[in-house]
Amino acid sequence: MVSMKASRRSDVDPFRAMDVLAEANRMIERGEPVISLAVGQPAAPAPRAARMAADAHLTRGRIAYTDALGRMDLRERIARHYEEAYGVDLDPARVMVTTGSSAGFNLIFLAAFDPGARIAIASPGYPAYRNIIRVLGLEPVEIPVGVESRYVFTADHLAAAHEERPVDGVLVASPANPTGTVTPPEELKRLIDYADEHGIRFISDEIYHRLAYTGGEATALAFSDAPFVVNSFSKYYCMTGWRVGWLVLPPEMVRVAERIGQSLYISAPELSQVAAKAVFDATDELDRVRDGYAKNRDLLVEALPRLGFRDIAPIDGAFYAYAAIPEGHASASEFARTLLAECHVAMTPGIDFDLTRGEGFVRLSYACDHADLVEAVRRMEAHLAR
After folding, report:
1. Is there a contact between 260 and 112 (Cβ–Cβ < 8 Å)?
2. Crossing angle, helix 332-343 and helix 16-29, to 10 degrees?
3. Are 174 and 182 in contact (CB under 8 A)?
4. For strand 169-173 and strand 118-123, is the pairing parallel, antiparallel, or unpaired?
5. Residue 205 backbone zone (phi > 0: left; psi -120 to 50: alpha; other: beta)
6. Each residue of 301-351: pLDDT tens digit?
7. Which one of 124, 249, 337, 344 is most buried, by most CB atoms within 10 A?
8. What is the DSSP secondary-structure string of 122-166?
9. pLDDT tens, residue by residue, 353-386
């Protein structure tokens, strides 16, 4: 039998957070009391309004394709959200409903860039950016950020990279994964102005919007019509497994993304779209969940330094803490393996987010129940005191 090789484009790093989750799940199946701080997934269920809307739609018995751009009633509701949340007047025709934000990134990279295009991203950053960019034949340009800028990717970072060797696009997340950093509105404007002036496509990842605890949250659409904006119902809205998100596209790119989406995805799941529209009426319930994250955040702000973690990122938003591991531990991967094996606490080694410096860091997700986080901190404290 002839040996068949995988494609060169498939040669990307694993998403280690998912590998850690898989191991934690195997341990849970064996009856071991694992607490997972590894994956950014809300512990709370989808809001009641979303579940009721889905139930009602299911009773009709027919779940169908929608337009590739999504149901118009959902696109109109998303557009209205921008007026309510940011004071931005948005044409619903610019909104595209996607199969989670992951499909949204695929569509942007395919619609806006040719093979070989160079896309600037922050490091540490969400590993799927790097992997999707590479799989699609583009080049990720990873730009180190750290404590000196509070882990904020700035216009100065972008200018220095572009002047050294031109980039074609830039992707900025605020609040950011894994650092929780919120880009101040004035810095976001500087980034967008620089990108517009130099013909650089600007992509704004806003999937953790409504989860900023120290203020300063702004949408890229407040400053220009040129950015691509990515958002999702997975994080604040607690609908990870429903796989539904959205894009706001520059007007000239709507038909381009629609044509690609027709062939790649047909459409996002209609049942999820129906539920997603209803979730905008669940703000009170969702804000209570958010209050739980804020309580968890306060716990980690106090506990992490006491446990010996260093160079802690700001924890301004999202539901992550990113920090250097305590002194005396040479490898974050080994540190995370030991914590999982010996005290049944799962976290993600920083090598997932930063290929150069990440073995000195870990990411902890605090989207869990408060009691679980209290217990996880207690277990870590006992382990590290040995």
Report:
1. no
2. 10
3. yes
4. parallel
5. beta
6. 999 999 999 999 989 999 999 999 999 888 999 999 899 999 999 999 999
7. 124
8. EES--HHHHHHHHHTT-EEEEEE--GGGTT---HHHHHHHHHHS-
9. 999 999 999 999 999 999 999 999 999 999 998 7
Q: What are phi and psi of 215, to 5 degrees?
A: 80, -175
Question: Angle CA(206)–CA(194)–CA(69) in degrees, nearest 5?
Answer: 40
pLDDT per position as a tens digit, 64-100: 999 999 999 999 999 999 999 999 999 999 999 999 9
Instruction: Assess contact for 384 and 326: CB atoms under 8 A.
Output: yes
Which tens digit of pLDDT belongs to each residue from 105-149?
999 999 999 999 999 999 999 999 999 999 999 999 999 999 889
Q: What is the rounded distance in angstroms from the CA atom of residue 317 to the CA atom of residue 159?
A: 26
* Three-class secondary structure of residue 308 per DSSP: coil
Specify the DSSP class assigned to residue 45: P
Q: Nearest 5°: CA angle at 358, between 362 and 327?
A: 60
Q: pLDDT-derived band of residue 18, with 50, 70 and 90 as boundaries? A: confident
Model pTM score:
0.94
Q: Spell out the residues 6+ positions from residue 14 whose beta carbon is closer than 8 angstroms to its own.
A: none
pLDDT band (50, 70, 90) for residue 44: very high
Identity of the amino acid at 112 = A
Tokens 């806003």 locate to 206
| Angstrom distance (rounded) from CA 258 to CA 264 | 10
Compute CA distances 206 → 104, 132, 144, 203, 210, whole Å: 12, 18, 20, 9, 9
